């Protein structure tokens, strides 16, 4: 049987997701919620803490809890961040599934794309990102094997960038990005929940280390209804 604060959290989360509590509005006070759910204020606080950790609300001291927009997720265009770093704001709402993980010999197309001069091995990694129970991102990675010869499926499920930088001491420096709208492939439809969607957003990343060596090519294939691609521009 679920704890009462978890049930309250789930009910409030559902109200936020379906728009009955609008983004930018204030949640009822702790006293009002305690009365509504016949619960103690301590139970309400536990529920609100979980909602805050999972990105549903933002607690402001002296003001209350502000409902956040959970219908879309902000993905930075110019930034170079891992999904794990983004998903920390979502708490337990986000999950990663490694669908394919193998070491392959590069095709002629891969060699050209990744500027490989030899047949050095490449890791092929497919990861599906699930948010709020829906599979809405397919990340297709190619990573030059010599930079991470001991890579594992478990590392891929957690964070490749965290492993490369934290464990191997590599410096991921910059990336060239291309963003297009494409018709979903059979592969997209096999891995993602795309019923009713005729297009997907594809972000292609060509990622380099600080010595300008390209070590990774990624196609991040997004269902279009869940994301805002954001940037900050300054006129010089």
Automatic annotation (TrEMBL):
SUPFAM superfamilies according to UniProt? Chorismate lyase-like, Winged helix' DNA-binding domain
The segment(s) forming the HTH gntR-type domain are 2-70
The source's superkingdom equals Bacteria
What InterPro entries does the record point to? Bact_HTH_transcr_reg (IPR050679), Chorismate_lyase_/UTRA_dom_sf (IPR028978), TreR (IPR012770), Tscrpt_reg_HTH_GntR (IPR000524), UTRA (IPR011663), WH-like_DNA-bd_sf (IPR036388), WH_DNA-bd_sf (IPR036390)
Q: Which CDD domains does the entry mention?
A: WHTH_GntR
Report keywords, A-Z. Answer: DNA-binding, Transcription, Transcription regulation
The family database entries (NCBIfam families) matched by this protein are listed as: trehalos_R_Bsub
The protein in question is named Trehalose operon repressor
Q: What is the lineage of its organism?
A: Bacteria, Bacillati, Bacillota, Bacilli, Bacillales
């Amino acid at each position: 049987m679920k704890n009462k604060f978890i049930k309250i959290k789930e009910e409030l989360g559902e109200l936020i997701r379906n728009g009955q509590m609008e983004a930018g509005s204030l949640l009822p006070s702790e006293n009002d919620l305690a009365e509504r759910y016949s619960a103690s204020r301590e139970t309400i606080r536990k529920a609100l803490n979980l909602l805050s950790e999972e990105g549903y609300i933002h607690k402001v001291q002296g003001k209350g809890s502000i409902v956040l927009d959970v219908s879309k997720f902000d993905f930075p265009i110019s930034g170079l961040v891992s999904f794990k770093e983004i998903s920390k704001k979502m708490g337990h709402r986000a999950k990663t599934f490694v669908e394919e993980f193998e070491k392959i010999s590069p095709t002629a197309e891969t060699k050209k794309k990744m500027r490989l001069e030899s047949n050095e091995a490449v890791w092929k990694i497919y990861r599906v990102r699930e948010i709020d129970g829906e599979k809405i991102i397919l990340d297709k990675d190619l990573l030059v094997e010599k930079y991470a010869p001991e890579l594992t499926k478990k590392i891929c499920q957690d964070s490749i960038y965290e492993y490369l930088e934290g464990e191997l001491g590599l410096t991921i420096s910059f990336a060239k990005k291309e963003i297009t709208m494409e018709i979903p492939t059979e592969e997209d439809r096999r891995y993602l929940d795309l019923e009713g969607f005729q297009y997907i957003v594809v972000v292609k990343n060509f990622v380099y280390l600080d010595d300008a060596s390209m070590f990774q090519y990624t196609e991040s294939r997004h269902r279009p209804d869940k994301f805002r691609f954001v940037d900050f521009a300054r006129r010089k």
